[in-house]
Design goal:
mainly alpha, 3 domains, about 450 residues, about 5% strand, two-stranded antiparallel sheet
């Protein structure tokens, strides 16, 4: 998790910043797939509140104490990788990993070329937010989420009471990350992380995750063979990466292990609540509220840095979808994730807390809106500009280049559509008599090329 969980959800694992970040496609995200899926029934044990959110180091359990489930390993021989493991063992031991724990964790581990292929071959396309939300908050996901709320109510109620985080938000993250536990990832984590650390493209990051994974095994939370996850290291029902697990995972069942891998999701759900609570979740405050903007509203005022009370926004004519002023939940900003042609939201502090889990605006809106639907709330009322076509990172860079050549300040050409680029797009659109929505579409790129 960026300062917590993984990077922003984008195809190509590119962190996009600003008010128009978009989440990845379902098959290429670094997070688990967001496909709706039917989830088999899981057994929930009675939750026991924890006394600390910090991990507790426990003695290494004997191999006999942890039954390991065999997992499929797709690998190839690589002598260089074998030599790297020998060198890495010294670094791991210097970081506090016991020799026996290392040897047990690396038993049978081989270079996995399929992981490197996945890391290399990622699409540069990003989904439009409406395409993302169509899947993220599908009717199937809503139905399954309501079912899991009923099934896990005893645990979720206890988790909400202990951490002060709404159970619907926790459940929504569970649904987004692993389809309520159906897609937790089945790759052997040590092998995947070791391969990526050896590969070197982001070797320092993955070596840090690998050492954290070994510390988790050494603490006795999981046996090496049961430590499975996504190809890039996300684990369990709510997809923690190892460093985030060490910092925030909790044993809520009281069985002595912070078990986020088993069919029982209690520890994973509690760990997610603990994470959100640590970053300042405010109970009773919404993540955001869909609003209607008055005619003539200046879209330049829709920026994260401009925060004021809902009453101040109401004085400017902004109302909720029922035509009423938004209650005073605290300081708020206006977010236009698809420019002026799509839905508008008044967003609050809790929006930024969900961002700690995943920085992409589309992901935060997906989690928040799914949670609202699980509470019985309505679908997003505004229509989306579905006529807009997606742009690649390369095309976004060209948009920035074209704007800069025409004298507009985009600050940096990086393919990330932040406030500066949005402002430049709006100025260009106004100069050409186009709707100043600030949206980086292919239609905009064509207008820039033609002008």
């Amino acid at each position: 998790m960026r300062t917590g969980f993984l990077w922003a959800l984008t195809v190509g694992m590119t962190v996009l910043q600003g008010s128009t970040t978009f989440a990845a496609g379902l098959e290429t995200s670094l997070r688990p797939q967001l496909r709706p899926a039917d989830v088999g029934e899981v057994v929930t044990r009675q939750a026991t509140p924890v006394t600390s959110l910090r991990p507790v180091v426990r003695p290494v359990l004997r191999p006999a104490d942890l039954k390991e489930t065999p997992v499929l390993q797709v690998s190839t021989a690589n002598s260089g990788f074998d030599q790297w493991i020998k060198g890495f063992k010294g670094r791991a031991m210097a970081a506090g990993i016991q020799s026996g724990v290392f040897d047990r964790a690396f038993r049978g581990i081989k270079y996995d070329g399929s992981v490197v292929k996945l890391d290399r071959n990622q699409s540069e396309f990003t989904k439009q937010i409406w395409e993302y939300l169509d899947s993220a908050v599908s009717q199937t996901r809503i139905t399954n989420g309501k079912r899991e709320l009923r099934r896990q109510r005893k645990a979720l109620d206890a988790i909400e009471a202990h951490f002060g985080v709404d159970k619907e938000i926790v459940t929504a993250i569970w649904g987004m990350e692993s389809a309520y536990g159906a897609r937790r990832g089945d790759r052997p984590l040590i092998q995947s992380l070791a391969t990526l650390a050896y590969d070197g493209r982001r070797g320092r990051f993955f070596e840090k995750q690998l050492i954290a994974a070994l510390k988790i095994i050494q603490a006795g939370d999981v046996a090496p063979g049961n430590m499975t996850g996504s190809w890039a290291g996300a684990m369990g029902h709510t997809q923690f990466i190892p460093t985030s697990y060490l910092a925030y995972a909790v044993d809520f069942t009281g069985d002595g292990k912070r078990d986020i891998w088993s069919d029982n999701p209690t520890d994973a759900l509690a760990s997610t609540a603990a994470y959100l609570a640590r970053f300042g979740w405010k109970k009773g405050q919404p993540w955001g509220v869909e609003v209607k903007l008055p005619r003539g509203f200046d879209p330049a005022r829709a920026r994260r840095s401009l925060k004021q009370a809902p009453s101040a926004w109401a004085a400017e004519g902004i109302r909720d979808i029922h035509g009423k002023p938004v209650p005073n939940y605290g300081a708020a900003s206006i977010l236009l994730p698809a420019g002026t042609q799509g839905a508008a939201f008044m967003i609050f502090h809790n929006f930024s807390v969900i961002e700690k889990y995943n920085k992409a605006d589309a992901y935060v809106i997906g989690v928040g809106h799914l949670a609202d639907r699980l509470k019985g709330g309505p679908a997003i009322q505004a229509s989306w500009p579905r006529q807009y076509q997606s742009t690649t990172i390369k095309q976004k860079k060209e948009i920035q280049t074209q704007l800069q050549r025409k004298g507009y300040d985009v600050q940096v050409i990086d393919g990330k559509i932040g406030p500066k680029t949005i402002g430049a797009i709006r100025k260009f659109q106004k100069s050409r008599g186009l709707p100043p929505d600030g949206y980086p579409s292919r239609q905009l790129l064509k207008a820039l090329r033609d002008s």
